[in-house]
Amino acid sequence: MGRIFVVELEGETYNCRSCQTHLALTDDVVSKGFQCHTGKAYLFNKAVNVSFGPHEEKMMLTGKHTVADIYCCFCGQLVGWKYEVAHEKSQKYKEGKFVLEREKIVDSLDSALYTDTRPSMSDTEDA
């Protein structure tokens, strides 16, 4: 297996809930009004540190789309999908964009809650 190179993003980010790997910038959110089988989802212009599953034809609420599941490249968690082709003219704006499931991501402010704040050996006073 090859080496994994993780892209570190500057600014406020959305991260993988499982491993905290950066996935997208908050500035790249196009819409927070998407739904998926796990609940809310956000549409992004770009995503990083993801790998792709095979293209699949899916009938969604907004019509037929060709999509590919996307996974965190570090831990392998399914985090959403990418719109490859939108077959309905009104849905063409989605092509090339990414949907991240809100249940699978945390924003950089929430990520601080997952940080281990227990003192390490170097934080304790000498006895």
From TrEMBL:
Domain Yippee: 12-109
Transmembrane segments: none
GO MF annotations, alphabetized: metal ion binding
Key words, A-Z: Metal-binding, Zinc
Pfam families membership: Yippee-Mis18
Signal peptide positions (record): none
Family designation: Belongs to the yippee family.
Descriptive protein name: Protein yippee-like
